[in-house]
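Project standup — Tuesday

K.O.: blocked on the structure for the chain from last sprint. Re-posting the sequence here as requested.
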Amino acid sequence: MVRALLHHIIGTISVIFYFINTVVWATPIIVLSVFKLIPVPQWRRFISYLLDTCATAWIGVNNLNQRISSGTTFHVTGLEQLTRNDWYLVTANHQSWVDILVLQRVFNRKIPFLKFFLKKELIYVPILGLAWWALDFPFMRRYSKSFLAKHPELKGKDMETTRKACEKFRTKPVSIMNFVEGTRFTQSKHDRQGSPFTHLLKPKAGGIAFVLSAMGEQLHKLIDVTIDYPNGVPTFWDFVSGRVRDVRVNISVMPIKEIMDSGIFHPSYFDDPQVRARFQTWLNERWQAKDNLLEELNATQKPL
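H.V.: unblocked you, prediction finished:
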């Protein structure tokens, strides 16, 4: 009873600090985003670096909050391969909302600030859309097959638009994050899929294929992250209230050039069934290796 009360108090204080810290750093991000509207490339680059500095500081204070409140021990391997001056595509298994906090904790100030590809419509979300745009989150426009059937002249335009949107990253290092499974692991999802893996859902190649098609020449390395919770997959509340004792994070790095030059992937992915099949097979093999690693780590997917 006393321990449960203590965890409740710690969690409440931690959440309050998360909220205050978010307000503190969201304010300059929103203010600076207005200045980024000035259509001068050099000025926009300068503001972008200031914005990334604010976002990095926001994550840094969140991480400090975690160290003080949670007491979680992180066991991380592979960080020595990374720098803040490189271009990365980051993939990881997905089990909990805590995964995002773990990735931010592990990679903050080790690689460029993590960004996600977002649907173009999300730029119109009040406040957040402006913040995502200011932080250079890439916005993509995807046309459905039915839409392209009616407007064949627009075929390839979505990729062309995305490539132009990513031009800014030629001179500015970036880390693009993609959860390959597309959703968090649950046993029910695993069973519905008939997943061949013990600890993972089936990987979806389309997301990272889109990133590679749009930015393959700009990205240098693939970071493959395996996250393991030895004591069971936690909820956000478990994490902030100090109930997660250990987190294991294994990092492997592979040159993107190796993927492109070996023929594993080709920009014709979306038009060539053979390329799609070959890339999906490669991804399945990596996912099998990840599943084997989780098994070796004695991982469990049961909730606390």
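K.O.: great, moving the ticket to review. The chain is about 50% helix and 15% strand. Strands lie at 73-77, 88-92, 114-116, 118-119, 139-140, 175-179, 221-228, 246-255.
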